[in-house]
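Problem statement: downstream parser choked on a complex file, so we are re-checking the raw output for the zinc ion run. The parser issue turned out to be on our end (a line-ending mismatch), but while we're here, posting the original submission so the record is complete.
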Amino acid sequence: MKIYLLTDLEGVAGVATHVNHSYPDGKYFEDSKKLLTSEVNAAIDGLLDHDVGEVLVVDGHGPGAIDFELLHSEARLLHGRPLTTQQMLEPIWDYDALVMIGQHSRSGRRQGNQNHTFNSKEIDWIQLNGRPIGEIGVIALWAGVKSVPAIFLSGDEEACMEARREIPGIATAAVKKGISSNVEITLSAPEARSLIRRSIGEAVDSHRKNPVAPVVWEPPFRLVIRWKSTQNADIQEHQTGCKRIDEQTVAFESRDILDVLLHRHSKAN
Ligand SMILES: [Zn+2]
Protein backbone atom coordinates (compact mmCIF):
# COMPACT_ATOMS: atom_id res chain seq x y z
CA MET A 1 0.00 0.00 0.00
CA LYS A 2 1.25 3.48 -0.94
CA ILE A 3 0.04 6.51 1.02
CA TYR A 4 -0.12 10.18 0.03
CA LEU A 5 0.11 12.24 3.25
CA LEU A 6 -1.02 15.87 2.93
CA THR A 7 -0.02 18.24 5.73
CA ASP A 8 -1.39 21.52 6.97
CA LEU A 9 -0.37 23.45 10.06
CA GLU A 10 -3.39 25.00 11.75
CA GLY A 11 -4.78 21.67 12.99
CA VAL A 12 -1.63 20.62 14.86
CA ALA A 13 -1.69 20.34 18.70
CA GLY A 14 -0.11 23.46 20.20
CA VAL A 15 -0.44 25.56 17.02
CA ALA A 16 -3.09 27.92 18.37
CA THR A 17 -3.01 31.22 16.46
CA HIS A 18 -2.73 32.51 12.92
CA VAL A 19 -0.47 35.45 13.79
CA ASN A 20 2.02 33.88 16.20
CA HIS A 21 2.04 30.25 15.09
CA SER A 22 0.95 29.81 11.47
CA TYR A 23 2.14 32.87 9.57
CA PRO A 24 5.79 32.60 8.50
CA ASP A 25 6.76 35.81 10.34
CA GLY A 26 5.04 34.62 13.55
CA LYS A 27 7.23 34.44 16.63
CA TYR A 28 6.46 30.74 17.21
CA PHE A 29 6.48 29.64 13.54
CA GLU A 30 9.68 27.60 13.85
CA ASP A 31 8.20 25.82 16.90
CA SER A 32 5.03 25.14 14.91
CA LYS A 33 7.06 23.49 12.14
CA LYS A 34 8.65 21.14 14.67
CA LEU A 35 5.27 20.28 16.17
CA LEU A 36 3.81 19.52 12.72
CA THR A 37 6.79 17.44 11.63
CA SER A 38 6.63 15.38 14.83
CA GLU A 39 2.93 14.65 14.23
CA VAL A 40 3.77 13.65 10.65
CA ASN A 41 6.52 11.35 11.93
CA ALA A 42 4.07 9.75 14.37
CA ALA A 43 1.66 9.16 11.47
CA ILE A 44 4.45 7.57 9.40
CA ASP A 45 5.40 5.30 12.31
CA GLY A 46 1.74 4.26 12.58
CA LEU A 47 1.59 3.54 8.84
CA LEU A 48 4.85 1.55 8.87
CA ASP A 49 3.61 -0.42 11.92
CA HIS A 50 0.76 -1.55 9.66
CA ASP A 51 2.80 -2.60 6.62
CA VAL A 52 2.41 0.48 4.47
CA GLY A 53 5.22 0.35 1.92
CA GLU A 54 5.63 3.94 0.80
CA VAL A 55 4.66 7.38 2.18
CA LEU A 56 4.84 10.63 0.22
CA VAL A 57 4.64 13.65 2.55
CA VAL A 58 3.30 16.78 0.85
CA ASP A 59 4.04 20.12 2.54
CA GLY A 60 0.62 21.71 2.10
CA HIS A 61 0.57 24.76 4.41
CA GLY A 62 0.70 28.05 2.40
CA PRO A 63 4.36 28.98 2.88
CA GLY A 64 5.45 25.41 3.72
CA ALA A 65 5.87 24.13 7.29
CA ILE A 66 7.81 20.85 7.30
CA ASP A 67 11.10 20.91 9.20
CA PHE A 68 13.14 18.87 6.75
CA GLU A 69 15.94 18.04 9.18
CA LEU A 70 13.44 16.43 11.58
CA LEU A 71 11.42 14.49 9.00
CA HIS A 72 11.15 10.69 9.32
CA SER A 73 13.93 8.84 7.49
CA GLU A 74 11.42 6.67 5.57
CA ALA A 75 9.45 9.63 4.14
CA ARG A 76 9.71 11.18 0.71
CA LEU A 77 8.87 14.89 0.67
CA LEU A 78 7.16 17.01 -1.97
CA HIS A 79 7.72 20.71 -1.19
CA GLY A 80 8.96 24.03 -2.61
CA ARG A 81 7.25 27.33 -3.41
CA PRO A 82 5.46 28.48 -5.45
CA LEU A 83 3.60 25.18 -5.54
CA THR A 84 0.66 25.00 -7.94
CA THR A 85 -2.52 23.12 -7.10
CA GLN A 86 -1.66 20.59 -9.81
CA GLN A 87 1.89 20.09 -8.53
CA MET A 88 0.57 19.55 -5.02
CA LEU A 89 -2.50 17.42 -5.72
CA GLU A 90 -1.92 15.46 -8.94
CA PRO A 91 0.47 13.00 -7.25
CA ILE A 92 -2.49 11.81 -5.10
CA TRP A 93 -3.66 9.83 -8.12
CA ASP A 94 -0.55 7.61 -8.03
CA TYR A 95 -1.29 6.48 -4.45
CA ASP A 96 -3.68 3.97 -2.92
CA ALA A 97 -5.08 6.31 -0.27
CA LEU A 98 -4.94 9.87 1.03
CA VAL A 99 -4.38 10.88 4.68
CA MET A 100 -4.38 14.43 6.10
CA ILE A 101 -2.43 15.67 9.15
CA GLY A 102 -2.84 19.08 10.84
CA GLN A 103 -6.08 20.00 9.10
CA HIS A 104 -8.41 22.85 10.09
CA SER A 105 -12.13 23.40 9.45
CA ARG A 106 -13.71 25.57 6.79
CA SER A 107 -14.23 29.30 7.30
CA GLY A 108 -17.14 30.42 9.45
CA ARG A 109 -16.93 27.64 12.07
CA ARG A 110 -16.59 29.59 15.31
CA GLN A 111 -15.14 26.66 17.26
CA GLY A 112 -12.83 25.74 14.43
CA ASN A 113 -9.38 26.78 15.59
CA GLN A 114 -7.90 29.01 12.82
CA ASN A 115 -10.87 28.15 10.60
CA HIS A 116 -10.48 29.36 7.01
CA THR A 117 -10.94 28.21 3.44
CA PHE A 118 -7.74 28.30 1.36
CA ASN A 119 -6.99 31.99 1.66
CA SER A 120 -7.72 33.34 5.13
CA LYS A 121 -7.22 36.95 4.09
CA GLU A 122 -9.30 36.99 0.91
CA ILE A 123 -12.01 34.28 0.91
CA ASP A 124 -15.09 34.63 3.11
CA TRP A 125 -16.67 31.28 2.13
CA ILE A 126 -17.14 28.78 -0.69
CA GLN A 127 -20.21 26.72 -1.63
CA LEU A 128 -20.42 23.84 -4.07
CA ASN A 129 -23.87 22.87 -5.36
CA GLY A 130 -25.48 24.88 -2.56
CA ARG A 131 -23.43 23.33 0.26
CA PRO A 132 -20.65 25.05 2.17
CA ILE A 133 -17.34 23.36 1.40
CA GLY A 134 -13.84 23.75 2.83
CA GLU A 135 -10.42 22.41 2.06
CA ILE A 136 -11.23 18.92 3.36
CA GLY A 137 -14.14 18.47 0.95
CA VAL A 138 -12.24 19.92 -2.00
CA ILE A 139 -9.21 17.68 -1.48
CA ALA A 140 -11.39 14.59 -1.05
CA LEU A 141 -13.16 15.42 -4.33
CA TRP A 142 -9.81 15.88 -6.07
CA ALA A 143 -8.67 12.44 -4.89
CA GLY A 144 -12.02 11.00 -5.95
CA VAL A 145 -11.45 12.07 -9.58
CA LYS A 146 -9.24 8.97 -9.94
CA SER A 147 -11.02 6.91 -7.27
CA VAL A 148 -8.49 7.46 -4.48
CA PRO A 149 -10.15 7.34 -1.03
CA ALA A 150 -9.36 9.62 1.94
CA ILE A 151 -9.01 7.27 4.90
CA PHE A 152 -7.68 9.34 7.83
CA LEU A 153 -7.52 12.92 9.09
CA SER A 154 -6.10 14.57 12.22
CA GLY A 155 -6.83 18.12 13.31
CA ASP A 156 -9.08 19.93 15.76
CA GLU A 157 -12.54 18.57 16.68
CA GLU A 158 -14.32 20.81 14.19
CA ALA A 159 -12.09 19.62 11.32
CA CYS A 160 -12.73 15.99 12.32
CA MET A 161 -16.51 16.54 12.33
CA GLU A 162 -16.30 18.22 8.93
CA ALA A 163 -14.27 15.28 7.56
CA ARG A 164 -16.82 12.74 8.78
CA ARG A 165 -19.62 14.76 7.14
CA GLU A 166 -17.80 15.08 3.81
CA ILE A 167 -16.17 11.64 3.68
CA PRO A 168 -18.34 8.76 4.96
CA GLY A 169 -16.16 6.10 6.58
CA ILE A 170 -13.06 8.24 7.18
CA ALA A 171 -11.28 7.72 10.53
CA THR A 172 -10.31 10.85 12.47
CA ALA A 173 -8.14 11.85 15.44
CA ALA A 174 -8.89 15.12 17.25
CA VAL A 175 -5.72 16.44 18.87
CA LYS A 176 -7.39 19.61 20.17
CA LYS A 177 -10.65 21.47 20.57
CA GLY A 178 -11.07 25.01 19.29
CA ILE A 179 -12.50 27.50 21.76
CA SER A 180 -12.34 30.22 19.13
CA SER A 181 -10.36 31.13 16.06
CA ASN A 182 -7.16 31.70 18.04
CA VAL A 183 -7.75 29.72 21.26
CA GLU A 184 -7.50 25.95 21.74
CA ILE A 185 -7.61 23.31 24.44
CA THR A 186 -5.01 20.84 23.25
CA LEU A 187 -3.64 17.44 24.13
CA SER A 188 0.01 17.44 25.13
CA ALA A 189 2.39 16.98 22.22
CA PRO A 190 3.36 13.39 23.23
CA GLU A 191 -0.29 12.40 23.69
CA ALA A 192 -1.28 13.93 20.31
CA ARG A 193 1.51 11.95 18.63
CA SER A 194 0.59 8.65 20.24
CA LEU A 195 -3.09 9.18 19.38
CA ILE A 196 -2.16 9.81 15.72
CA ARG A 197 0.17 6.81 15.55
CA ARG A 198 -2.43 4.48 17.03
CA SER A 199 -5.46 5.76 15.12
CA ILE A 200 -3.85 5.99 11.68
CA GLY A 201 -2.80 2.34 12.05
CA GLU A 202 -6.36 1.39 12.96
CA ALA A 203 -7.58 3.36 9.94
CA VAL A 204 -5.33 1.36 7.61
CA ASP A 205 -6.49 -1.95 9.09
CA SER A 206 -10.12 -0.94 8.89
CA HIS A 207 -9.73 0.26 5.27
CA ARG A 208 -8.21 -3.07 4.29
CA LYS A 209 -11.19 -4.94 5.74
CA ASN A 210 -13.91 -2.52 4.79
CA PRO A 211 -12.68 -0.04 2.14
CA VAL A 212 -13.59 3.64 2.42
CA ALA A 213 -15.30 4.81 -0.78
CA PRO A 214 -13.77 7.66 -2.81
CA VAL A 215 -15.76 10.92 -2.74
CA VAL A 216 -17.48 11.48 -6.09
CA TRP A 217 -20.25 13.99 -6.86
CA GLU A 218 -22.38 13.94 -9.99
CA PRO A 219 -22.32 16.92 -12.40
CA PRO A 220 -23.38 19.64 -13.05
CA PHE A 221 -21.38 21.77 -10.62
CA ARG A 222 -22.00 25.28 -9.38
CA LEU A 223 -19.25 26.85 -7.29
CA VAL A 224 -19.95 30.09 -5.44
CA ILE A 225 -17.13 32.11 -3.89
CA ARG A 226 -17.81 34.93 -1.45
CA TRP A 227 -14.74 37.18 -1.38
CA LYS A 228 -13.89 39.45 1.55
CA SER A 229 -13.50 42.42 -0.81
CA THR A 230 -14.92 43.46 -4.19
CA GLN A 231 -11.46 43.36 -5.75
CA ASN A 232 -11.32 39.62 -6.52
CA ALA A 233 -14.94 39.63 -7.71
CA ASP A 234 -14.01 42.44 -10.14
CA ILE A 235 -11.33 40.20 -11.66
CA GLN A 236 -13.26 36.93 -11.60
CA GLU A 237 -16.50 38.10 -13.14
CA HIS A 238 -14.75 38.43 -16.52
CA GLN A 239 -13.44 34.85 -16.53
CA THR A 240 -15.10 32.20 -18.72
CA GLY A 241 -17.99 30.46 -16.97
CA CYS A 242 -18.22 33.10 -14.22
CA LYS A 243 -21.17 35.22 -13.21
CA ARG A 244 -21.20 37.96 -10.59
CA ILE A 245 -24.00 37.47 -8.07
CA ASP A 246 -23.45 40.54 -5.92
CA GLU A 247 -20.67 42.95 -4.98
CA GLN A 248 -18.43 40.30 -3.40
CA THR A 249 -19.78 37.01 -4.76
CA VAL A 250 -19.08 35.17 -8.02
CA ALA A 251 -20.53 31.89 -9.31
CA PHE A 252 -18.77 29.46 -11.66
CA GLU A 253 -20.53 26.65 -13.51
CA SER A 254 -19.08 23.59 -15.22
CA ARG A 255 -19.76 19.90 -15.74
CA ASP A 256 -16.08 19.12 -15.17
CA ILE A 257 -15.13 18.67 -11.51
CA LEU A 258 -11.45 19.42 -12.21
CA ASP A 259 -12.39 22.77 -13.79
CA VAL A 260 -14.30 23.55 -10.63
CA LEU A 261 -11.57 22.44 -8.22
CA LEU A 262 -8.88 24.38 -10.11
CA HIS A 263 -11.04 27.48 -10.37
CA ARG A 264 -11.78 27.98 -6.73
CA HIS A 265 -9.12 30.26 -5.23
CA SER A 266 -6.13 32.45 -5.88
CA LYS A 267 -3.68 31.26 -3.28
CA ALA A 268 -3.68 28.88 -0.33
CA ASN A 269 -2.51 29.64 3.19
ZN1 LIG B 1 -2.45 26.08 6.41
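For whoever reads this later: The CA atoms of residues 230 and 247 lie 6 Å apart.
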